[in-house]
Write a structure and sequence with these properties.
single chain; alpha/beta; two-stranded antiparallel ribbon; 13 helices
Amino acid sequence: MDSSASDSAQKASSGNSKVGPLKGLCLSSGLLVLLLLLLEAGSYIFGRVDTGVDPLITGVEDYYGERDGSRQADPLLFWSFRPNEANFNNLGLRGPDVGAKQPGEYRVLSLGESSTMAARLEYEECYSDRLEKKLAQATDRPVRVINAGIAGYTLFQGKTYLEHRGLDLEPDAVVLYFGKNDFLPISYLKKRTHGDPSRGQTDRELFEELQANKRSWGARLAEWSNLYRMLIRWRDAGKREEIKGEVLLDDSEVRVPAKDRRMLLSSIHEMCSERGIPLVVMIPWYFEFNEHPKLLKAFAKQSGVPSVDLPAKIPPLLTKKKSEYFLDAVHPNAEGHRLIADCLAEVMLPLLAEADRSD
């Protein structure tokens, strides 16, 4: 064989040796992609996986007594209730479904916690529904009071809900009822504090951390990959077993410190003022609770916001003991809600009358 033929053979052999591994790599990559696509499709057999967001309080569903799966992780509010499940409407709130605002409708957004939500009462017994009926009797226009109370919510969550969802409901007035949950101690999780029990997170700090995490590559991948969400679920299940019973409480810090409460009240007032929405602050009424009223009263006075001082307006009930108006140390019973609605109506009826005149 001459030298030219030999060179050609060597070049062909060299070319084949390069193409072979390349083809193999492409084939392997293609098979891997196909396998991942099949696994991704298969992961939807049991539906979309919800990875969940660690709530501020471990085992929040058991803590608040809801064990029916109605609570879901919420990227903005830590948790919320699933729409159209159990006793919740199309927005995951108590009460009738909320649709588009009717022409001329006077709409009140009632923000609060479990006292507002009144899960242990019939909906017709809660103060939001009672207020709606009182206002409707005083005007010819449609009236709707949206009960946006959620069990366990703090003033921080109320402000966040108003900013990101509540204002979209086009309220003509906003009512606040927050107190007890703001003063719950922060819960420390070792996996969240890297083993340092001296550091915790307020609601604001936890919110900021969750928002930062949403911008990570892992969060972006979890947005479209159900398989990846499944892997996260399995990983977190193992971690939850590891840290079970390792929650440390620190009574020296609370979920919403005083400085945050002042900032939140000012922020809510600013949002409402910019849109011409009257804000009404309720001094909450609990069986045993002496925190927060002083700050609320000072804010109402300085900002000119109408307030409803429930502990002052429903003090010595001469005919009944205070215990007869509560289901427990926090939640008013049906009669307690009736009294709250009566007190709130005294402030809301003039606001409704003013709206009627302006129209």
